[in-house]
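fold-stage: in
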Amino acid sequence: MVRYFEEISADETHDLGSYRADREELLSFARRYDPQLIHTDPEVAKETMYGGLIASGWHTASACMALLVEGFLRETATLGSFGLEELRWRTPVRPGDTVSVELDVLDTTPSSSREDRGYVDLEVSAENGDGEEVIYWRSTNIFLTRAAGDAWPLGADG
């Protein structure tokens, strides 16, 4: 069943699950998308302030985004987002870390100009196994209203 704007409430919290930071996946991603030596060369990374290889923040964000889609967005009539209002990489993710991701719905606002949609302020945060926050972001996402459900490609029943 698809959830529309009216069915999303401020103060919802969702456990989005977790992922394990696989060393080879971190290296592969970094070599292609963020080829800084702290992400691609374990020997050089040892000599930095990090004391070893760390994940690209973009890899961490991508892994968290996948969990956000699977654990929340996939069941909603989402039209995307305006982008991130804030993004923070708090603590480096290291190979072997287990990263747990949580979503908080902060606020919902009906559109004042388009009756077919509303805006939902979301906060995504993730922690490593030591309880340290590794990433945080805040965004405003766009969701169709139930009345506009015919515009949703999956139909009212998802």
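fold-stage: in (second)
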Amino acid sequence: MLRRRPRRPFRSLLSALTLTVAAAAVPGTAAAAPSATESVSRGWNDYSCKPSAAHPRPVVLVHGTLENAKTNWWAFAPYLVNRGYCVFSFDYGKLSGVPAFHGLGPVAKSAQELAGDVDKVLAATGADKVDIVGHSQGGMMPRQYMKFNGGAKKVNALVGIAPNNHGTTLSGLTRLLDIVPGARGVIDSTAPGLTDQVVGSDFMKRLNEGGDTVPGVKYTVIATRYDEVVTPYETQFLSGPNVRNVLVQDLCPVDISMHLTLGTIDRVAFHEAANALDPANATPANCASMVS
């Protein structure tokens, strides 16, 4: 008689969360993205790239939870490359045995990984500072790097697209962590990058203690009112000097992007992120940005 293998709670929970996030995508968009094994676009992750006078700082792209360095940026990285930027991305927060879906390790450890990658980019390009654009966790985690890992002196601007800056309720689903027996312990021990991002977590308390920002860095937050992953969406916004909070529906009322699409295909968000990288030459982002 065959013995049934015991179920693995982590795999079940991870699968459920993956489906929740994937459901945020507009039908048909996921198929257009390259796989994690495909080569990157010409000029993207090109360590021979030297920043121009027009764009003197390399741009480091930081993917979100359950994303990776390629699938999150398959559209935005070429968008920046075509505008003359040196663009770099990398994977962080990997778990053993979990391919392609990253950003699951402790956020503080991921920030240490970001520190090493920024140093690698600076050494290769000869630049003094980088600009960072991050989606979801990737828009929040660099704040840990700048506050606790010496990153403030190496970053000129941080652009967060749908960033989880103050913790999320995940449209109320995080309540299950306290209702389902053992759920919080299972996820915290196997994928701490998830529980770190829940509203009220110890990580979130440390990150935001004493204020949202650090001196010398420019901040832009780009959010959508239809975000179903980082909720309420207003918690994405930052307070402090050198902060610009943007709601895409204020730029284009018919923009219906949700969490995942805002960071992967939304051209209004792309346009506003480019404005944040080059404010001296910014142009208005609006509904026309969708086709520009």
